[in-house]
TrEMBL record, chains A, B:
Gene3D superfamilies: Hypothetical Protein Pfu-838710-001. The active site is at residue 31. SMART domains: CYTH. This is CYTH domain-containing protein. SUPFAM superfamilies: CYTH-like phosphatases (SSF55154). Residues 2-149 form the CYTH domain. It holds the Pfam family CYTH.
Amino acid sequence: MAIEIERKFLVDKEKWQQLEKPTPMHLRQGYIFSDESKTIRLRIADDQAFITIKGSTTGMSRSEFEYAIPVADAAQMLDDLAVSELEKYRYNITYSGKLWEVDVFLGDNQGLVVAEIELDSEDEEFELPLWVTTEVTGDKRYYNSKLSIHPFKNWD
Amino acid sequence: MAIEIERKFLVDKEKWQQLEKPTPMHLRQGYIFSDESKTIRLRIADDQAFITIKGSTTGMSRSEFEYAIPVADAAQMLDDLAVSELEKYRYNITYSGKLWEVDVFLGDNQGLVVAEIELDSEDEEFELPLWVTTEVTGDKRYYNSKLSIHPFKNWD
């Protein structure tokens, strides 16, 4: 089990486009179950797959249990058991010694680019890259489980 | 992924008591989620633990995905995320070349003893041990996920 402490920001798409970027991973992920208290996620990341159980979010923190599983199992559970899913490209970018995960969403969430930084404590200080803008930590609309059900293209 | 084909029977408790039995495993199991279409189960079996995702039952068959996980993770998810749980002793008994799993339930399900046989096909023939009685395959009251919510002691 891990405690995941994350902060989440929107990305300035113009600045992002000008950035030199590494090759992204392709992520397909879906949810077998999701409510306020927990989420059960399946993710295929290129040629690897994982099942992840997350507890409820308190502030920026959330308990997370993640296990590698066969890709074929994940694909079949996504096809047969997931209630919703989404796809995105993920870029892992190191900035000022910290890892940023930048998700460029696809499909019905196309147009949305979100950057997350994982922290060691809630009060850890870090440097903001020039290409991040508004903080959206805690905004439930940006939870991936929500984006899979109520995608960006349907937002007002 | 496996397709699980099972038949389930009640056990004659007098005959069962007279039987010479192996040492059972102690199972503690609970459900993070359970409805008609799928079940997500955590199980601690003595010093091992598993997460198991099952699809809906069609006849005697059900898709099943099972992964070994750390016992400490399973215990924490059972404590923090499970909506219901139960405990039982499990006896693995080979009879006429087939494995029978006999569950002697504890706690609020005390008094219930159920035997399951796993088959290779739905029409596979097998020999019934003298200590099994009524078949209860497909009777939802005997689903472990149901017994964890509506235990045997509350039955009419």
